[in-house]
Design brief:
Blueprint: H1 35-41, E1 46-47, E2 53-54, E3 59-66, E4 82-88, E5 94-100, H2 114-121, E6 126-130, H3 142-156, H4 158-161, E7 163-173, H5 175-185, H6 187-191, E8 202-206, H7 214-219, E9 245-252, H8 257-270, E10 276-285, H9 299-310
Parallel strand pairs: 5-6, 5-7, 7-8, 8-9, 9-10
Antiparallel strand pairs: 1-2, 3-4, 4-6
Helix pairs in contact: 1-2, 3-5
Amino acid sequence: MLNRAENNTFGPNLMARDIFSPFNHKGLCAAGDPAARALDCFLVASPTPGFTMTAMPAFQPRNELPYIDPHSSDSPGRERCTLDLYLPKSPGPFPVVVWFHGGGLTGGDKAEAAFVAAALARQGIGLIAPAYRLSPHISFPAYVQDAALAVSWVMKNLSGIGADSAHVFVGGHSAGGYLAALLAMDVRFLEAVGVRLSEIAGFICVSAQVMTHFTVRAERGIPQEQVVCDEAAPAYFTRKDTRPILLAVADDDLPARLEENAFFAASLRAAGNERVSFEIIPGRNHASIVDPMDQPDDPLARLIGKFVESH
């Protein structure tokens, strides 16, 4: 592993908000900060064709790239529609995952993807982390449309970022998993921005709500205890012909979240869908299913890496 103090690939202009926090005055992780674990992961490897790991230079982050024209609409929150790239410095091509952050569709930040990016870096996978507009400033389906636009930006810029066009995945955790699942199931969102579902290698939905999201129900004045499965629910679109889907939940996830995903997987299989995988991560809860992903041999990191490699 390279020594962070001897590595200058991140450059003098890296800001604390760009990757990890807090930083010291040299732009490197402060000693003892847990973010240092993630930074280490960006200094160990990059992919070669076939996903064989070799010693390569560090990842090069690029941050706050707009995926839509911020002046294209008067809708509040358009300034959030930016993304961060965590890409190998090698010429590629390498697989990439477009990863949406959680936060109940009312909060969260794309910087939370740093540890996920670190985990994928060990396996030769790039990560693209978009932000999206949030409720209550906007309402359904605006945040799903933002997610689709972010994927469209990625598809239009694959050659420029060195990604493998045959290995583009879409995923996320919690609310981000919900967005990924809805893009997987309701083809209209991606088709509206010129992306064919067949162009996406697979979808990775971690602790996702697959019924109508509780924030969508709140926007409509529906009681939180009332389960709804309508066009705002990935499960509403259950069918045989989807792209490969990985559903992963913690064994101590949010109330009914495990059962909800188990029902979704069972419904897909009952429809003849052989492209869904349902996995339970033991010893984890809704937050800790992703928090330690930067640690070596993390089960979710292994699971995602295997899913990417096999599709």
